[in-house]
Specification:
Layout lengths: L7 E6 L4 H13 L3 E4 L10 H13 L5 E6 L3 H7 L7 E3 L3 H9 L5 E5 L5 H13 L6 H7 L6
Helix pairs in contact: 1-5, 2-3, 4-5
Bound molecules: D-ribose.
D-ribose (RB5) binds next to helix 3.
Length: 150
């Protein structure tokens, strides 16, 4: 993406998502982005929350600009990630939702289903996500209301 700045992107996956995660790592590097890969790197069964939490910490610390999680469906990873205050993780299957997740929700993480979508769809989703800026304004007010009790 010629108009997309270079970012550091944290990646985390379970056994249902590691193949797509590895494809995304290669794609990101080819696009000029830096990658922090928190695994997993095999089909051996692991627990998706463990990978979600370590990847979220990289985003929350500022070490990474964005994070991408991949499990079988994308669902479990998104549940775990969105328990972290400050993480807004969008579970999406197509680029329009990825664009709106950035424009309206200032999402800082994506969650993808490694068993649900193919590599080309995932590349389109991530390219759209990284190329889209938050619109601010009324959306910032709404984001401030997401945390209960604030
Ligand atoms: C693992 O079998 C699977 O449950 C996991 O990858 C994910 O889809 C959970 O939401």
């Amino acid at each position: 993406m010629t108009n997309t700045p270079s970012f550091t992107v944290a990646l985390g996956a379970d056994h249902g998502g590691f193949r797509l995660k590895n494809a995304l790592a290669d794609w990101l590097r080819a696009q000029g982005h830096a990658v922090r890969d928190f695994g997993t790197n095999s089909a051996d069964s692991v627990d998706y929350p463990d990978l979600a939490h370590v990847t979220c910490k990289s985003v929350l610390s500022g070490e990474s600009n964005f994070g991408v999680l991949v499990c079988g469906t994308g669902l479990g990873m998104s549940y775990a990630a969105n328990r972290h205050p400050g993480i807004r993780c969008a579970m999406v299957n197509e680029p329009t939702s990825a664009r709106l997740a950035r424009q309206h929700n200032d999402a800082n993480m994506l969650s993808l289903g490694g068993r649900m979508i193919g590599e080309e769809a995932a590349f389109d989703i991530l390219a759209t996500f990284l190329a889209t800026e938050f619109e601010g304004g009324r959306h910032a007010r709404r984001i401030a209301k997401i945390e209960p009790g604030v």
